[in-house]
Specification:
The structure holds 2 protein chains of 2 kinds.
Chain A: E1 2-9, E2 12-19, H1 24-30, E3 50-53, E4 56-59, E5 72-74, H2 87-94, H3 104-117, H4 127-133, H5 144-154
Parallel strand pairs in A: 1-5
Antiparallel strand pairs in A: 1-2, 3-4, 3-5
Helix pairs in contact in A: 2-5
Chain B: E1 5-8, H1 12-19, E2 24-27, H2 33-38, E3 46-49, E4 58-60, E5 64-68, H3 73-77, H4 80-85, H5 87-94, H6 99-104, H7 107-112, H8 118-121, H9 162-170, E6 173-176, E7 181-183, H10 184-187, E8 207-213, E9 220-226, E10 237-243, E11 249-254, E12 261-262, H11 264-270, H12 279-284, H13 299-320
Parallel strand pairs in B: 1-3, 2-3
Antiparallel strand pairs in B: 4-5, 5-8, 6-7, 6-8, 9-10, 10-11, 11-12
Helix pairs in contact in B: 5-9
Chain lengths: 155, 321
């Protein structure tokens, strides 16, 4: 069974017929050729597939594509503007916040979600708060210290 | 992974009609359903999408805060009245899963999530919850994370929800689509001989809302969760305490029971007692009353007692100052 839906992905409108069982991650990869969003555990445990849906960070591997009809999706491919890196991307480069890079798209999308959420009561984010609220993103190279520093630079 | 068909319910009535069809299952946030489906544990013929039904409101009434079953965990945790009046609830939610999961997962789905027992989630193990009658691999296996309270010879899986522990301490009740109202402590079933049955929810029945009594005056509450890593992990042991104006204390624990576990013996020991450095350890020592620990999880008895002692000290002695 396929389901017809409309998705806005990185500002571009798409009308798609997706398998009823497909995840948003699979649709991004296989129907839209957007492979920047990574498949890690495929169980919601690693955060490599993090994207923004209507501005909120979610695991694309845990999102049924059929349920996303009408949503605005932002993936890592849509973060840079007019060829210029987003300040958060620049901060990741400046702080050497990666080694193999596989988790990086998810780290950046998750951090963008975090920055949009702000502090729990709207206050500025400190290091402990960033660490706690980036806990949904694993980095098996262990670049955490530099990831936190990069996020704090932009926060 | 068995393919399923997909239908979006246009109304609650529509959802109940669709759910009555053979092989139907509800999907809301999908954060537990999809891993269960990918693992071959859930294999519905059709999923009924209820995520867009208007059951996501949080209504603050004079006596009750009504939380719609489809409210997302992140939205409940940052609701100003809930943060202010029900810190035990906000803290239990913020200690749950990851920010990404909390943005998608719903309150009703959280209460319906299946156990994290790895013999249940894994492939090829005997598990009475997954395949009734097949046996329980955890009894003689790696059972460090399993329950010590409410267990049976058929199942020792721990209930995974932090939210449910807070709701038990708060004396919340669930409103179901059948117009039934069930106190949360009665919603979850002990495994007994039928560990595949986890709640009193009938097939095709839906949780509509969670009603939480609104605390009065100077009541206070807290949630304490111990886990194997700093964040994004299920509880090894957790505890929730709610103290109302008249010093009536309600306590519940997580990570230790086959359902969210109300600590009635501790509550009884504290009722009417002077709150001091002697009473608290005496009450906390009763936290594991009735426990049946196994080789791998014997440590949870003392850890639960210490967790409750620490929580009571934080909530009650701080109150005295």
């Amino acid at each position: 069974m396929t389901v017809s839906l409309h998705l806005s992905v990185n500002g571009r409108s798409h009308r798609l017929d997706v398998p009823a069982c497909a995840t948003l991650l699979e649709v991004l990869h296989e129907q839209l050729a957007l492979t920047g969003t990574k498949k890690g555990c495929d169980m919601g445990a690693c955060g490599a597939c993090t994207v923004l849906v209507d501005g909120r960070r979610v695991n694309a591997c845990l999102a049924l594509a059929a349920q996303q009809d009408g949503s605005e999706i932002l993936t890592i491919e849509g973060v840079a503007r007019d060829g210029a890196l987003h300040p958060l991307q620049q901060a990741f480069v400046a702080h050497d916040a990666l080694q193999c890079g596989y988790c990086t798209p998810g780290q950046i999308m998750s951090a963008l979600g975090l920055l949009a959420e702000g502090g729990p009561m709207g206050e500025a984010l400190g290091e402990a708060e960033v660490r706690e609220r980036m806990s949904g993103n694993l980095c098996r190279c262990g670049a955490y210290a530099n990831i936190v520093a990069a996020i704090l630079e932009v926060a | 992974m068995t393919p399923f068909s997909y239908t979006r319910a246009g109304s609650e009535r529509d959802a109940l009609r669709l759910a009555a069809l053979p092989g139907a299952a509800f999907i809301a946030g999908g954060t537990d359903f999809l891993p269960l489906w990918k693992s071959g544990i859930a294999a519905p013929e059709r999923v009924v999408d209820i995520a867009r039904l208007p059951l996501d409101r949080i209504d603050v009434g004079d006596d009750t805060i009504a939380i719609g079953a489809l409210a997302r965990l992140a939205d409940v945790a940052r609701h100003p009245t809930i943060r202010h009046e029900l810190p035990v609830l906000a803290d239990a939610l913020l200690a749950s899963a990851s920010p990404q999961v909390r943005n998608a997962a719903t309150v009703g789905g959280n209460l319906m999530q299946r156990t994290r027992c790895f013999y249940f989630r894994g492939d090829g193990f005997a598990c009475n919850k997954r395949t009734p009658g097949s046996g329980c691999s955890a009894l003689l296996g790696e059972n460090r994370l399993h329950a010590i309270l409410g267990t049976s010879d058929a199942c020792i899986a721990a209930h995974p929800s932090d939210l449910a522990v807070a709701l038990v301490a708060l004396g919340a009740s669930l409103r179901l689509s059948s117009e039934r109202r069930v106190p949360i402590d009665d919603f979850f079933l002990l495994p007994g001989d039928t560990p595949e049955r986890e709640t009193v929810l009938a097939p095709g029945e839906l949780i509509v809302a969670v009603d939480v009594p609104r605390p009065t005056g100077r009541s206070r509450s807290a949630y304490l969760k111990l886990r194997d890593r700093a964040s994004f992990e299920f509880a090894v042991v957790s505890a929730a305490a709610v103290v109302d104006d008249r010093r009536s204390i309600r306590l519940a624990a997580g990570g230790v029971g086959t359902k969210p576990w109300r600590l009635k013996a501790c509550e009884a020991a504290l009722a009417g007692a002077a709150i001091d450095e002697d009473t608290l350890p005496r009450a906390a020592a009763l936290a594991a009353d009735g426990a049946r620990p196994l080789e791998g999880n014997r440590f949870k008895v003392e850890l639960l007692q210490r967790t409750v002692h620490r929580l009571l000290s934080d909530v009650l002695l701080r109150d005295e100052q």
